[in-house]
Structures are given as structure tokens and as C-alpha cells.
Design a protein that fits this description.
By secondary structure, the chain is an all-alpha fold. It contains three helices and no strands. Helix 2 (26-51) packs antiparallel against helix 3.
Length: 82
């Protein structure tokens, strides 16, 4: 029974990976490119904010606003170790 469950889980993971890896059309590709550029701009703005001497709290709040709807999580998927 345990071996069957492991096999079923492995098959489900392989199928979900295959579905996610489907090639995008031109429209989806252009949307992905635009989203990556928007995320990069948001992170660059956050770096400049920190360089300007403003607090981390202020800069993270701005990053959170800039990333809303762009990526996974509040900060476009970027996590820090601290």
C-alpha cells in the first residue's frame, strides 16, 4: 500500500511538472518578459531606496506595493536570509 501511494505521488508530480512546462505561445512569452522586467525594476528601486538611507521597513513596503500581482509572495518571490 505504501509503495502504491509513493508511485501515485511520483506520477502526479511528473504530470504536474509536464503540464507546467508546456511551451508558451508568443502572447504568453511577451507577458512573461514584461513581468520579469517589472519585477527587476521593482527590485532595482528597492535597492536604490536602501542606498538612499531610508529604512528597510519603508523600502520593503514600497517593494511590496510594486510587486503586488507580479510574483509569488509579497516581495516578488525574493527572500532574504535575515
Amino acid at each position: 500500500m505504501k509503495k502504491t501511494l509513493v508511485t501515485i505521488a511520483a506520477c502526479a508530480m511528473a504530470l504536474s511538472t509536464a503540464l507546467l512546462a508546456q511551451p508558451h505561445g508568443d502572447k504568453e512569452r511577451k507577458e512573461d518578459i514584461a513581468r520579469h522586467r517589472a519585477m527587476a525594476a521593482a527590485h532595482e528601486a528597492a535597492a536604490k531606496c536602501l542606498e538612499s538611507g531610508r529604512t528597510e521597513k519603508e523600502c520593503l513596503e514600497k517593494l511590496r506595493q510594486d510587486c503586488k500581482g507580479l510574483g509569488i509572495g509579497k516581495y516578488c518571490g525574493m527572500r532574504h536570509k535575515h
